[in-house]
């Protein structure tokens, strides 16, 4: 089943957690604040494999990470546990901003790459496809692994018998299925 994850309105009629996350995002006005940066909610919450400790993950496409860090500081530095850091993903400079708000941990990931081509989005699309194909018992197995401290991509790789780095293995699996390039 196709799901348009670029439109956050699916959260309104989703699980209790999805509805709660929608309210948090609306109070923060994240869609409006970052509309020009192609914001997408990714991770476990959109595909209903979140556990209580799962954070709210937002991807954005930002050409200038230094300018984006300044914007993050301006908007969120007064929130509890605010931090930002630079690092590389896919050999591309990346920036994250983390903070707590309304009982949720929020992480915004910025990279000069369209959000629909970033690893976080591609992993979610692949995971969503697998969950749709494999059904509820597979979903429960993923949740059990996550509750036992296994990261999401590693849990999928374990159940799909994929070897190697979980992030790359899952992407390769998605490429084989024709879900991403």
Considering the chains and any ligands shown, give keywords for the structure:
5 strands; 5-stranded mixed sheet; 7 helices; Beta Polymerase, domain 2; alpha+beta; globular; 181 residues
Written account of the structure:
The structure is a single chain. The chain has 181 residues and is of the alpha+beta class. It folds into two domains: 8-113, Beta Polymerase, domain 2; 120-176, no CATH class. The protein is built from seven helices and five strands, in the order ααββαβββαααα. It has helices at residues 16-28, 30-33, 65-76, 119-134, 136-147, 152-160, 166-176; strands at residues 40-42, 56-61, 83-89, 92-101, 104-111. The protein has a five-stranded mixed sheet with strand order 1-2-5-4-3, sandwiched between helices. The radius of gyration is 16 Å and the shape is globular. The two termini are 20 Å apart.
């Amino acid at each position: 089943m196709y799901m348009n994850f670029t439109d956050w309105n699916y959260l309104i009629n989703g699980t209790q957690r999805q509805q709660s996350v929608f309210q948090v995002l609306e109070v923060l006005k994240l869609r409006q604040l970052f509309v020009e940066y192609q914001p997408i909610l990714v991770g476990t919450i959109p595909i209903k494999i979140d556990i209580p400790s799962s954070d709210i993950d937002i991807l954005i496409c930002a050409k200038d990470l230094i300018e984006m860090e300044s914007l993050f500081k301006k908007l969120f530095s007064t929130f509890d546990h605010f931090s930002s850091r630079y690092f590389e993903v896919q050999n591309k400079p990346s920036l994250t901003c983390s903070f707590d708000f309304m009982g949720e941990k929020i992480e915004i990931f910025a990279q000069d790459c369209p959000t629909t081509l970033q690893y976080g989005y591609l992993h979610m699309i692949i995971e969503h496809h697998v969950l749709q194909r494999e059904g509820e018992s597979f979903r429960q197995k993923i949740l059990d692994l996550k509750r036992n401290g296994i990261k999401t991509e590693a849990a999928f790789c374990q159940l799909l018998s994929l070897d190697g780095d979980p992030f790359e293995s899952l992407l390769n699996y998605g490429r084989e299925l024709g879900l991403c390039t």
